[in-house]
C-alpha cells in the first residue's frame, strides 16, 4: 500500500546556527531530501551603496570594512584601488607591498574561518573551529599592531596606507609565517584523513566546470570546479606580477575540492608574504593626494581577488568630492547563485556542508 | 531451568535475589535506602558528568571551560540548574498538549530505571534481577518513545524531522547492540548483572573485543552522541526533538541525555570492564573510576569527529555493525560449544585475532558512501 506523503516547507534562518549570520533559506523537504530551496536575504541591509554617495571618497573607506567583515583589508584594498584607478594616482612601492602583506594575511584569516565553519556545519563540535580561531587570533594581533583595530581596520587610504608598520611587526610576522605551514599541514592531516570527513565532503555538492562559469562564480568556488582563474594572475593589480605563486584548482568541484583549494591557497599566501617581506622597499607610504580629492569625471570598475572571490567596485564620478554612484560586486552574493543547483536533491545534512563550502558573509550580500 | 551448552542461564534461586548481608535485611528498608541512594547517585553523577564534560571538552578545544562559579567552576552546574528551572515554561501554540507534556517524563523515567540493576559493588544493587541484562535492553529503548512524542507533539518541523530520525536510527541500533551483549551472556552464562561481574576473571573487553566495539558504537548511537548525534544536530535541525521545550521540561530532557550517558557508561563498565572489581581500592571507587574512564572516551569522540549523514548512519548499522555482530556471536558460540573448558587466555588471543581480521576485511568492503539507503 502506498502511503500518502506530503512535502513540507521549513525555514532555515534567519536565526539558525549554520546560516553564518542572518541568511535565510526556505527549504521544501521531502522527508530528508531537499526538493526546492529559495534563498531570502536582506536582513542586514544597511544601504551602504546609497550612504556612500553622501560622503566623500575618503570617508567611504569605513563602509568597506563593514561589507565582508571577515576580510576587511581586502575590501579596503578593492575600494582604494578603484578610486586610484579613477583618479590616476600612483601609489608608492612600500605602500603596495604593505597592502599585499595585509591582504594575504587577511586571505589566510578568512580561509581559516571558512574551513573552521565548514567543519562546524558538518557537525564537528566546535573543536576544529576553535583551533582555527587560535591561528586567526595571531593574525588579528598583527593587524592590531599595525592599525590598532582587530576587525574593521580602515587601514588603506587613497594613495597609500594610513600608517607605516611598527618595528616589532616584521619579527612577529616572520614568527607567525614560519609556524603557519606546520599548523596547516598538521590539521589538514587530522581532518583530510578522517574517514567521516571524507565521506561527508567527497562527491557532495558537485558544481561542474560549465555551471561554475555560467553562474559567474569566483574564488575558491570557481577554482574548486577546476577553472584556473585568479585575478591576481589574470589581471594583475598592485604588484602581484612580481611574486611567484601557484593557483590551486580542484578537479571535481565537490565540497572537498573547495576545502582543498582553501588549504592550498593558505600555503600560497604564506609564500607571497615571505616574498613580499623579502622585497619590502623603504620609502614613502602615501602618495601626494590633495586633501579635497576630486577625481575627474568618468567611471571605473576595479576588482581584486578577495578571499571569497572577485570583489569589485564600480564607481561613477561627476567630478565632485563624493562618488555619484558606487556599486559593489560582492563575491558571496554571486557565488550564492549556484546554491539552488547544488542543493536540490541532497539531504539536509549535506545542504549545510555545501552551504558552508561556498563560504558566504552576509555583510557583503546585504550591503 | 534453561541452559546453554551446559551452563545455566538463570541462577538456581529463580526469584530476584535481594541483597548482600551488609544491608538491612528487610525488603522495605532495603528498597527505601536504595532508592534514595540511587537518586542521589544519578543526580549527582549527571551533574558531575555535565561539569566534567564541559571541563574536559574545553581542554580538547584549547579553552579553559567554566571556572568562575565556585572553586574550579564546581558550582557552575548548580547555577545552570537554577537558571533552567526559573525560566519561563512555554507551551507553544497548537501543540498536542498531552503528548507534549508527557514526553519529558516518558523520556527520563526509563533512563533512570536502568540503574535499578547496576551493581555498584558486590551484590549492591536495588534488585539483582536474574534477567537484569534483558531488563536493561528492554527498558532503555523506552526513552525513544519520549523523544518521538516530543518531536511529534511539539508542532515544529525541526522536531518532526528529528522524530523521524529517532525512529530510524535508535531502533536500528538496538539490534547490533543486543547481539553484541549476547556474546557476554554466553561467556558469563547468566543474565544477572552482578553474576556477570563475578564471572569476569578477566575483563570481557579482552574476551569480547569486537563485541565491546560494537556495543560501544551502537550505544553511542542510542544516546545520540557524536558522530551519531543526528537527533539534535545543531547545524542542521537546531536542537531536534526538544526544540520547543523550555524550563523544567527542557531540564528533564537535558537530564535524560546525561542519565543515558551515565547508564551506558555503567553498563559498559559492568559488562566489559569488570564492574566493581579491582585491586587495592574499594569496589565503589573502582566502579566510578571505570565509569569516568569510559565517559572520557565518549567525550573524546565528541570533541573530535564530525557528524554522519542519516543514510550513512543507517548503512553503518545494517551493513557494518550487524554482520560483525553476527560473526562475533558465531565465533563466541562455537568457542562455548566446542571448547567450553579451554583456557580463557587462549580465547582472548583467538578473539582479538578474529576481531582484527573481520574488522579489517569488512572495512575494505564497506564504504560509508556505498549504495544509498533511503533515510
Structural features, described:
- The complex is a heterodimer of chains A (367) and B (375).
- Chain A is 48% helix and 13% strand.
- Chain A has 15 helices and eight strands.
- Chain A has one domain: Cytochrome-c3 Hydrogenase, chain B.
- The radius of gyration of chain A is 21 Å and the shape is globular.
- By secondary structure, chain A is an alpha+beta fold.
- A two-stranded antiparallel sheet of chain B has the order 1-2.
- In chain B, helix 6 runs parallel beside helix 13 (310-338) and helix 11 (247-272) crosses helix 12.
- The longest helix of chain B has 34 residues, at 27-60.
- The relative contact order of chain B is 0.13.
- Classes of the chains: A alpha+beta (367), B mainly alpha (375).
- Chain A binds chain B through residues 8-10, 16-18, 29, 31-32, 119-127, 130-131, 134, 194-197, 199-200, 202-203, 347-350, 352, and chain B through 57, 60-63, 157-158, 160-161, 164, 226-227, 229-230, 233-238, 302-312, 367-369, 374-375.
Biggest beta-sheet profile of chain B: 2 strands, antiparallel
Order of strands across the biggest sheet of chain B? Answer: 1-2
- Number of continuous helical runs of chain A: 15
Number of strands of chain B: 2
Distance between the termini of chain B: 43 Å
First-last Cα distance of chain A: 52 Å
Overall pLDDT of chain A: 86
Number of domains of chain B: 1
Largest sheet of chain A, in brief, is:
3 strands, antiparallel
Number of domains of chain A: 1
Amino acid at each position: 500500500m502506498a502511503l500518502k506523503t506530503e512535502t513540507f516547507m521549513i525555514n532555515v534562518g534567519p536565526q539558525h546556527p549554520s546560516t553564518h549570520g542572518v541568511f535565510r533559506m526556505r527549504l521544501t523537504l521531502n522527508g530528508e531530501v531537499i526538493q526546492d530551496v529559495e534563498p531570502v536575504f536582506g536582513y542586514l541591509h544597511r544601504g551602504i551603496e546609497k550612504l556612500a554617495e553622501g560622503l566623500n571618497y575618503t570617508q567611504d573607506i569605513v563602509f568597506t570594512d563593514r561589507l565582508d567583515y571577515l576580510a576587511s583589508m581586502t575590501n579596503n584594498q578593492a575600494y582604494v584601488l578603484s578610486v586610484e584607478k579613477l583618479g590616476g594616482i600612483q601609489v608608492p612601492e612600500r605602500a603596495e607591498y604593505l597592502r599585499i602583506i595585509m591582504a594575504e594575511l587577511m586571505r589566510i584569516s578568512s580561509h581559516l574561518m571558512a574551513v573552521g565553519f565548514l567543519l562546524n556545519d558538518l557537525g564537528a563540535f566546535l573543536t576544529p573551529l576553535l583551533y582555527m580561531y587560535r591561528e586567526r587570533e595571531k593574525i588579528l594581533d598583527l593587524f592590531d599592531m599595525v592599525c590598532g583595530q582587530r576587525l574593521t581596520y580602515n587601514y588603506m587610504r587613497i594613495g597609500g596606507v594610513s600608517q607605516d608598520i611598527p618595528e616589532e611587526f616584521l619579527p612577529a610576522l616572520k614568527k607567525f609565517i614560519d609556524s603557519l605551514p606546520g599548523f596547516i599541514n598538521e590539521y589538514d592531516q587530522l581532518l583530510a584523513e578522517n574517514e567521516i570527513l571524507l565521506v561527508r565532503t567527497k562527491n557532495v555538492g558537485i558544481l561542474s566546470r560549465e555551471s561554475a562559469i555560467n553562474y559567474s562564480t569566483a574564488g575558491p568556488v570557481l577554482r574548486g570546479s577546476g577553472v584556473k582563474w585568479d585575478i591576481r594572475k589574470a589581471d594583475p593589480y598592485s604588484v602581484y606580477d612580481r611574486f611567484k605563486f601557484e593557483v590551486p584548482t580542484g578537479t571535481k568541484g565537490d565540497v572537498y575540492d573547495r576545502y582543498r583549494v582553501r588549504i592550498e591557497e593558505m600555503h600560497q599566501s604564506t609564500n607571497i608574504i615571505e616574498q613580499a617581506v623579502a622585497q619590502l622597499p623603504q620609502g614613502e607610504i602615501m602618495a601626494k593626494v590633495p586633501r579635497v580629492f576630486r577625481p575627474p569625471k568618468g567611471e571605473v570598475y576595479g576588482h581584486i581577488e578577495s578571499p571569497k572571490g572577485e570583489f569589485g567596485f564600480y564607481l561613477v564620478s561627476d567630478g565632485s568630492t563624493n562618488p555619484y554612484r558606487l556599486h559593489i560586486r560582492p563575491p558571496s552574493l554571486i557565488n550564492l547563485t549556484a546554491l539552488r543547483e547544488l542543493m536540490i536533491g541532497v539531504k539536509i545534512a549535506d545542504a549545510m556542508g555545501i552551504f558552508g563550502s561556498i563560504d558566504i558573509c552576509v555583510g557583503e550580500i546585504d550591503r | 531451568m534453561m541452559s546453554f551448552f551446559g551452563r545455566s542461564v538463570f541462577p538456581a534461586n529463580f526469584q530476584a535475589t535481594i541483597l548482600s548481608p551488609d544491608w538491612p535485611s528487610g525488603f522495605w528498608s532495603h528498597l527505601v535506602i536504595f532508592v534514595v541512594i540511587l537518586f542521589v547517585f544519578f543526580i549527582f553523577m549527571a551533574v558531575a558528568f555535565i561539569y566534567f564534560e564541559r571541563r574536559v571538552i574545553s581542554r580538547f578545544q584549547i579553552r579553559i571551560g567554566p571556572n568562575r562559579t565556585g572553586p574550579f567552576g564546581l558550582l557552575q552546574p548548580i547555577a545552570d540548574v537554577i537558571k533552567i528551572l526559573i525560566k519561563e515554561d512555554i507551551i507553544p501554540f497548537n501543540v498536542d498538549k498531552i503528548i507534549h507534556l508527557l514526553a519529558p517524563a516518558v523520556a527520563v523515567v526509563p533512563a533512570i530505571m536502568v540503574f535499578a540493576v547496576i551493581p555498584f559493588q558486590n551484590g549492591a544493587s536495588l534488585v539483582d534481577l536474574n534477567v537484569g541484562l534483558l531488563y536493561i535492553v528492554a527498558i532503555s529503548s523506552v526513552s525513544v518513545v519520549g523523544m518521538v512524542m516530543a518531536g511529534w507533539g511539539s508542532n515544529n518541523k525541526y522536531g518532526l524531522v528529528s522524530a523521524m530520525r529517532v525512529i530510524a536510527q535508535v531502533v536500528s541500533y538496538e539490534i547490533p547492540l543486543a547481539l553484541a551483549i549476547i556474546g557476554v551472556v554466553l561467556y558469563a552464562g547468566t543474565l544477572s548483572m552482578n553474576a556477570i561481574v563475578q564471572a569476569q576473571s578477566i575483563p570481557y573487553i579482552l574476551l569480547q573485543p569486537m563485541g565491546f566495539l560494537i556495543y560501544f558504537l551502537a550505544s553511542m548511537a542510542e544516546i545520540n552522541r557524536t558522530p551519531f548525534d543526528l537527533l539534535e544536530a545543531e547545524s542542521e535541525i537546531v536542537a531536534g526533538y526538544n526544540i520547543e521545550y523550555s524550563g523544567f521540561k527542557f531540564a528533564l530532557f537535558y537530564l535524560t541525555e546525561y542519565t543515558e550517558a551515565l547508564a551506558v557508561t555503567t553498563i559498559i563498565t559492568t559488562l566489559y570492564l569488570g564492574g566493581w572489581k579491582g585491586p587495592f581500592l574499594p569496589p565503589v571507587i573502582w566502579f566510578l573510576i571505570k565509569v569516568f574512564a569510559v565517559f572520557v572516551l565518549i567525550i573524546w569522540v565528541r570533541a573530535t569527529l564530525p557528524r554522519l549523514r542519516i543514510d550513512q548512519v543507517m548503512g553503518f548499522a545494517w551493513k557494518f555493525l550487524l554482520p560483525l555482530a553476527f560473526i562475533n556471536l558465531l565465533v563466541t558460540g562455537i568457542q562455548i560449544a566446542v571448547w567450553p573448558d579451554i583456557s580463557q587466555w587462549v580465547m582472548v588471543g583467538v578473539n582479538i585475532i578474529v576481531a582484527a581480521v573481520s574488522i579489517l576485511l569488512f572495512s575494505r568492503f564497506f564504504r560509508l558512501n556505498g549504495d544509498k539507503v533511503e533515510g
